[in-house]
Amino acid sequence: MSFIKRLNQKASKSSGWKHWPGLIEAYRELLPVSTNTPIITLQEGGTPLIPVKTISNLIGKGVSVYVKYDGLNPTGSFKDRGMTMAISKAKEEGCEAVICASTGNTSASAAAYARRGGMRAYVLIPDGYVAQGKLAQALVYGAEVLAIKGNFDKALDIVQEISKNYPVTLVNSVNPYRIEGQKTAAFEIIDALGDAPEWLCIPMGNAGNITAYWKGFEEYKNLGKSQTLPRMMGFQAEGSAPLIYNKIIENPETIATAIRIGNPVNKINALNAKTKSKGSFLAVTDEEIIKAYKLLGDQEGIFCEPASAASIAGLLKRKEEVPKNANIVCVLTGNGLKDPDCAINNNDASFHSNLDPSLKTVAKKMGF
Ligand code: AN7
Question: Alpha carbon 27 to chain centroid distance?
Answer without folding.
Answer: 19
